[in-house]
Design brief:
Number of helices: 8
Shape: elongated
Low-confidence stretches: none
Distance between the termini: 40 Å
Number of domains: 1
Helix content: over 70%
Mean pLDDT: 92
Protein name: Glyoxalase
Largest sheet: none
Strand content: under 5%
Length: about 130
């Protein structure tokens, strides 16, 4: 399994954000693990969201920009199957050590993951609209 972890880390690249002595475990995990994965998977997340919106009768595409932002938040909060699919796309790129750390405080990390993903999608509404 070490080879898999090595390949995963190589794929993801460098960590983002500042890590210092005062950083909490969650902050460190966020910057070393979550941010690189979200960046790497960004194009896939956009396509998955577009596909989801189309399958939901394309309502998203007729909304105002403000309502589109709310739609992104609501979908990820309320559609458990969709949220779990997105979460799986992130967790699949954890190393074994990261997964062991994740399961210790998965509830807190899941909130961070989904909040970061929501913000990422909302910041790219113009791309999603096209």
């Amino acid at each position: 399994m070490e080879a898999r972890d090595t390949h995963v880390l190589e794929l993801r690249g460098e960590s983002f954000g500042t890590i210092n002595n005062q950083s909490s475990f969650e902050e460190i995990f966020q910057n070393k693990t979550l941010r690189p994965i979200l960046k790497m998977q960004n194009d896939l997340f956009i396509q998955v969201f577009i596909n989801y919106a189309i399958k939901q009768k394309s309502v998203f595409f007729s909304l105002t920009p403000e309502k589109k932002m709310m739609y992104v938040e609501n979908v990820i909060q309320r559609d458990i199957k969709f949220r779990n699919a997105l979460k799986g796309m992130i967790i699949a790129l954890f190393t074994l050590e990261e997964y062991a750390q994740y399961i210790q405080i998965s509830s807190n990390l899941n909130k961070r993951m989904m909040n970061m993903l929501v913000e990422r999608l909302k910041s790219q509404i113009l791309i999603i609209e096209q």
